[in-house]
Amino acid sequence: MELVTVSLLNGVVYGLLLFMLSSGLTLIFSMMGVLNFAHASVFMLGAYLSFQFGRWVGFWPALVIAPLACALVGAAIERYGLRRVHPNGHVAEILFTFGLAYVIEEVVTMIWGRNAVANNVPAVIDFPLFTIFGSTFPAYKGLMMAISIAMFIFLYVALKKTRIGLVIQAALTHPKMASALGHDVPGVFVLVFAIGSGLAGLAGVIGGFMLLTQPTLAHAIGLIVFVVVVVGGLGSLSGALFASMLIGILQTFAVAVDYSLLDLLRVFGVAVSRTSPLHEALGVKLATAAPIVPYLLLVLMLIVRPRGLLGTRDV
After folding, report:
1. Which DSSP category does 129 fall into?
2. How far apart are CA 218 and CA 231, in angstroms?
3. What is the pLDDT of residue 54?
4. Could you give the CA distance from residue 236 to residue 134 in angstroms, rounded to a whole number?
5. I want to staple 159 with a disulfide (CB 3.0 to 4.6 A). Which of 131, 165, 200, 222 is the partner?
6. Residue 279 and residue 275: Cα distance in Å, rounded?
């Protein structure tokens, strides 16, 4: 019971962290149709900026300043980069954001170096929130969960229940009509990209000290974010939340289970000889194979339902 409860709680925490990162990417794709390969790099930039501003002005101001700085970076990317390549189609957009990811990584390396920085949990949120089965649950994880839930509620209400959300969706589907009605369509796109980048920066503030803040952080987390977006359904905010929770819980339980298929076969009385070609494969511990669980889920989803859990278009 203790293993299940603690693993479930850790899985929810990890899943909400994935949602914090994938929500901005989902927003940008659903509103603009741009698959932003530099999104994880903006997340990394948010982690570094929060580390730097945290040293200068403290954690709470950094929690606000770092996402705003990432939002400004995102606005500049859309205004002076994506807007110029957009007429050339999606391939040009993908190549631009792919190259931009390397540019951001090099800028981070030049400023902070190639080694990981000491982005430790700030003392103001480094205390036990509660104790369960003798294990303490840290306050910073509770803060991250609260921010993730608030982020989902804000985005859902803003896009579905407010006038600006309707304008944003109309600007994507019918840009000429929205422009004829007096709406600044290019300005709307800048706003959407800025919000998406700001959300990535906000995720970086929290995720920076949960993960290792180093120049390769974007590579470490970027792939699994795209897995979340595809499994949840391209452009679906609710799908991103469900996929994040599913992947987070599955991977956390996989890490906690130190058994293999060989152990399972032994329970049912099936013996596999050491000379069998399947012995080595069946003997791999589930905890060892945990990193590939999200990608197995991705392959299964592409076979069974290419549009994802709640998506409206095929991949």
Report:
1. E
2. 20
3. 92
4. 38
5. 165
6. 7
Q: How many CB atoms lie within 10 A of CB 230?
A: 21
Find the domain containing 66 and state its range: 2-243
Closest alpha carbon to 27 in 155, 161, 187: 155
Running DSSP on this structure, what letter comes out for residue 33? -
- Rounded Cα–Cα distance for residues 249 and 88 (Å): 40
278: in domain = no
Token code pair at residue 26: 């989902």
Domain contains 261: no
Confidence band, pLDDT 50/70/90 cuts, at residue 270: low
Task: Give the number of domains in the chain.
Answer: 1
* Average predicted confidence (pLDDT) for the chain: 84
Q: Is residue 297 part of a domain?
A: no
Alpha helix (H) ranges present in 174-311? 175-180, 185-210, 217-232, 237-256, 261-267, 279-282, 293-304
Note if the pTM is more than 0.85. yes
Q: How far apart are CA 116 and CA 87, in angstroms?
A: 39
- Tokens standing for residue 292: 């590939």
Alpha-carbon torsion (123, 125, 130, 135), positive or negative = negative
Closest CA to 21 of 207, 247, 194, 153: 207
Burial of 300: CB neighbours in 10 Å, binned 0-12, 13-18, 19+: exposed
The two tokens of residue 5 are 């409860």
Query: Could you tell me which residues come within 8 angstroms of residue 102 by beta carbon, excluding any fewer than 6 positions away?
Result: none
Overall size of the chain counted in residues: 315
Residue 270, CA atoms < 13 Å, CB-side half-sphere: 9
The string over 97-114, giving b where at least 16 C-beta atoms fall within 10 Å of a residue's C-beta and e elsewhere, is beebbeebbeebeeebee
Q: Note whether 120 and 209 are within 8 A (CB).
A: yes
Q: Is residue 260 in some structural domain?
A: no
